[in-house]
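Check the record.
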Amino acid sequence: MWRIPNLITGLRLALALVTFFALAGAALLSDSLTPDQQFALERWAFIAFVVAALTDFVDGWLARSLHATSIWGAILDPIADKVLVCGVVLGLLTLGGNGMVAIPAALILFREFTVSALREAAAGKGITLPVTLLAKWKTTLQLVALGAALLVSCWGAFSLPADPAIQGTARTITNVLLWIAAAITVITGVQYWEKAHMALIPHDSPKAPRSS
């Protein structure tokens, strides 16, 4: 039973790859695919992303319920989160016409890679940087915002209303969600930077008074 949470986390990694490759395939093979085939790939990408996002809550809950927390799980879980976020961001960008995603996505990716580097440097010194409550909410906001962006980008694949007013409203809501997620992401990145700086950079020792 203790393996189940880690298996679910592994599933999230696999679904992240499915999301990326389905979106990339829909974009890069558009000339050789029929519209129905392209829409099918976009639908599979969205479904894979939603299932992967849900596993982010399930594996943690199961680990706590089954008392199956482990060092391997603690390492694998944030990796799976970052691969999922990076996969859907890169997949969205390959679709094209996603200008609303570019800047907040860049901020999100910059923060994720920076914090990963800080964690690695801290681990080399035997220092851990625990996940904060705001950082957990950050992941949730990222997944919701990116899910909304994915739905807007794959609008036609789900036969959603073609009314420009409805689509415009959906894009506006998605934009707001993306920028909120990006802002929280940057804030948590600054918090981790400050913690890492305090832990890794030794404070200057008091200087001896100069003799006259």
